[in-house]
Sequence to fold (246 residues):
Amino acid sequence: MARDKGRDKLQRERPAKWAGNHEKRRVYVYAEGKVTEKEYIDLIHADGIPKKPDQKVDIHFMNAMAVGDDRKPLTMVKQAVKVLRDVERQAERNGLDEDDWRWPHVWVLFDRDRHEDITEAFKMAKKAGVRIAYSHPCFELWRLLHYKNYTSTFGGVCDSANDKLREQPGFAQTYGKNVKKVSVPESKHVHPGQITGKVQGRSRYANAKRFAQTMSERHDGVNQNDWDPYTDMWRFVEEGLLLSGY
Fold:
């Protein structure tokens, strides 16, 4: 499909203006994947458990039409920095300060994959105040943790994580009762049964978060390229979307 340059530029560079009495937090999201991350976020946003019932979130997918290099980590962070400056100025004009729960967030969700600009993207984001949710080797690790703990290295190969995910008992059946096997393209689509429900009395989310936190404790180096495996998507869920689970 041809890229709609005009529309994409509008999404990336001109966030919607705030209404006078905006009572929700606006969360602006840049995602490396075109399908999986958005479907996941849409599901948990609709069915997640708010930390506080009166604290609601509006989500704006800023690079929905982007393709190719525009979905690389450093490019997304550069775009996110511009948007962050804009929305923070808008928030200040609306009488908010950084301690207000409605203060806007700008998040960039990306994977290790084989990108060469990971450390630079992290440095730029930290300096500007852009928030990152990072998965190594890829987002499929976070989905896998909803089924089981996994601590072995993937060698930076996302296909290995996807293979492990598709092998999980019951995964194929989330696509249909009689489905026996799911292809890689099909597995990009997120279905509720993959992330919701309970395993041994605990919610899939609670398990995934616990596994991810334990995993992160093993990585104390400054080079994010070496954090294999790693994911902190739970931070986006709780700090960005203000959810306690789903």
User: Anything to note?
Assistant: Residues 73-93 form the longest helix (21 residues).
